[in-house]
Amino acid sequence: MITFASSVLYSRLSSKNLTGNIPSDLTKLSGLVELWLDGNSLTGPIPDFSACINLKIIHLENNHLTGELPSYLTNLPNLRLLHVQNNMLSGKVPSGLLSKDLDFDYSGNINLHKDGGKGKRTRVIIGSSVGAAVLLIATLVSFILLCKGKKSHVKEQVQHSLPVHRAVSSLGDAPAEAAHCFAFSEIENATSNFEKKIGSGGFGVVYYGKLKDGKEIAVKVLISNSFQGKREFTNEVKLLSRIHHRNLVQFHGYCQEEERNLLVYEFMHNGTLKEHLYGPSTREQRISWIKRLEIAEDAARGIEYLHTGCVPAIIHRDLKTSNILLDKHMKAKVSDFGLSKLAVDGVSHVSSMVRGTVGYLDPEYYISQQLTDKSDVYSFGVILLELMSGQEAISNESFGANCRNIVQWAKLHIESGDIQGIIDPSLQNEYEIQSMWKIAEKALMCVQPHGHMRPSISEVLKEIQDAILIEKESLAVREGTSDEMSMQSMNSNLNVSSLDFVGTDNYLSVDDSIAQPAAR
C-alpha cells in the first residue's frame, strides 16, 4: 500500500493513466507547493485543499472531474496558477478567482459559467423583454416617420442604432469573447498614420499605436493578397480572440477594410528576446542566467497552453527568439501563434513563414512536409541553446569553418563534456553548473532528429522549473540564507516511486507499469 510523506512539496503525476477520485490524503500535505494531476482520467469532485496553504500551482485539466469549483480556492494565499479546463465541472465560477492575480483557465467546462444559471436566465428573460419592447417602439416610430416622408432620416437612425449588434453577430454568439473590429480611421489615428515602425516579418510590418483611452497597441499590417477570403479570415480571427493566457501576447482585435487586413495586439515594452540576446544594447542590458531561465519558463507555459489547453490543440509552427516578447516587467509572452493558419498555403512570399524558419525548423518536415507539436519542441530546444550560449541559431562565423547550425555545434561540445565551451561568456560564472547541465541535456533531447524521441513541452517545462529551483538555492547559499531552503530542496526531489496512494475503489489507481518515473 502506498502512503504520502508529509514533507512532499511537489506531486507531479501528469499523464499517468490515473483513474478514480482525487485521494483525500493529498489534502493533508500541508507543505504541498505544486499539484500536477493533468492529463489523466480522474473523476468525482475537487476535494478540499484549504489546508494546503502553500499551494502555488494546481494542474487538474484534461480529466473527467465533476461538481462545482470550490470557493475555498479563492482563499489560498499563494495560489498563482489554476488550470481546470476540459473537465465536466458545473455551476458558478467563484468571483474571487476572477479578480485574483491568477493564471486561471476553466475553458472546456460547458456547464461552468462566470454567472449562476438562474441569474443568467433572468437576465436573458429581462433582456429579451426589453429588446422586444424597444423593437416594437422602434417599429412604430419608423412607421410614423415613414408616413411623413422622412425615409432617409429613419434609415440614418437605424444605421446608427445597430452597429454593435452587427459586429457581434458577425463573429459569433459570445460578445465577451468576440474580437473587436477597429475602423481603419481609428487605427490611422492611433498610429499617427503608421509613423513608428517597431518590427517586420514574413507576414507583414508592425507599428506602434496608442488608442484614445491610453492603451498602447502593436498593429500588424498583413501582406496584401496573402490571406484567405473575408469569411475565412474573420472565422480565424474569432478563434484567435478566444485564446487567453498570461504567457501569450494578448489579441485585441482586427481591421478589415478595402482589401487591408490588420491585427491589433497589446504592446510589449521590452521588445523581443532576440534583441536582448544579440541586439546592440546587449552589453548594457545583460540578462542573467536565472532571468533567462524564467523567460524560458514563461515561453514554455505559453506553448504548453497552445498544445494542451486549446481544443483543438494549436501548433505554433514558427517558434523563435523574435517571437518571444518581453513586457515592461521582463515577463515573456509568445507571439504570432495561429498566424500560419491565416495564410494561404502556396503563397510564395509567406511560404517560409508557414513552414517555419531556417535554424528552428524540424528536420522531419523535410521528409513528411508536416509540422506537429514535437516540431514546436524542436524549435524550443534551439531557443534553449541560444539562451545558454548567447549565439544565434544560424551563423557563418561563430561555430567554426564547417558548422553553421547551433544544434550541431552545441551537440559536439555537450556530448564531449565540454559545456563550458558553449556558455555565454557574458554570464561571468553567475550560474550553477548543475542547472546548466540540466538545460543542456534537455535541449539535446528537444532537438533529436525524430519527433517520437523528443519530450513533450510539459516535460521540458518541469525541467526548467527544476533548474530555476537549483539557481535560487545556489543564490541563497551565496547570500547565507539557504539552510532551510536546502532542506526543502532535498524533500522536493522525491519522485513518483516514493509516493503511495491508498488503494480503495474510490481512490485513484496506479498501474505498476507506470509507477516508476520515466527517464528524462
Automatic annotation (TrEMBL):
<protein>
    <recommendedName>
        <fullName>Protein kinase domain-containing protein</fullName>
    </recommendedName>
</protein>
<dbReference type="InterPro" id="IPR017441">
    <property type="entry name" value="Protein_kinase_ATP_BS"/>
</dbReference>
<feature type="binding site">
    <location>
        <position position="220"/>
    </location>
    <ligand>
        <name>ATP</name>
    </ligand>
</feature>
<keyword id="KW-0418">Kinase</keyword>
<dbReference type="InterPro" id="IPR011009">
    <property type="entry name" value="Kinase-like_dom_sf"/>
</dbReference>
<keyword id="KW-0597">Phosphoprotein</keyword>
<dbReference type="InterPro" id="IPR032675">
    <property type="entry name" value="LRR_dom_sf"/>
</dbReference>
<feature type="domain" description="Protein kinase">
    <location>
        <begin position="192"/>
        <end position="469"/>
    </location>
</feature>
<keyword id="KW-0812">Transmembrane</keyword>
<keyword id="KW-0433">Leucine-rich repeat</keyword>
<keyword id="KW-0675">Receptor</keyword>
<dbReference type="Pfam" id="PF07714">
    <property type="entry name" value="PK_Tyr_Ser-Thr"/>
</dbReference>
<keyword id="KW-0067">ATP-binding</keyword>
<feature type="transmembrane region" description="Helical">
    <location>
        <begin position="124"/>
        <end position="146"/>
    </location>
</feature>
<keyword id="KW-0472">Membrane</keyword>
<keyword id="KW-1133">Transmembrane helix</keyword>
<keyword id="KW-0677">Repeat</keyword>
<keyword id="KW-0723">Serine/threonine-protein kinase</keyword>
<dbReference type="Pfam" id="PF00560">
    <property type="entry name" value="LRR_1"/>
</dbReference>
<dbReference type="InterPro" id="IPR001611">
    <property type="entry name" value="Leu-rich_rpt"/>
</dbReference>
<keyword id="KW-0547">Nucleotide-binding</keyword>
<keyword id="KW-0808">Transferase</keyword>
<dbReference type="GO" id="GO:0005524">
    <property type="term" value="F:ATP binding"/>
</dbReference>
<dbReference type="InterPro" id="IPR008271">
    <property type="entry name" value="Ser/Thr_kinase_AS"/>
</dbReference>
<dbReference type="GO" id="GO:0016020">
    <property type="term" value="C:membrane"/>
</dbReference>
<dbReference type="InterPro" id="IPR000719">
    <property type="entry name" value="Prot_kinase_dom"/>
</dbReference>
<dbReference type="GO" id="GO:0004674">
    <property type="term" value="F:protein serine/threonine kinase activity"/>
</dbReference>
<dbReference type="InterPro" id="IPR001245">
    <property type="entry name" value="Ser-Thr/Tyr_kinase_cat_dom"/>
</dbReference>
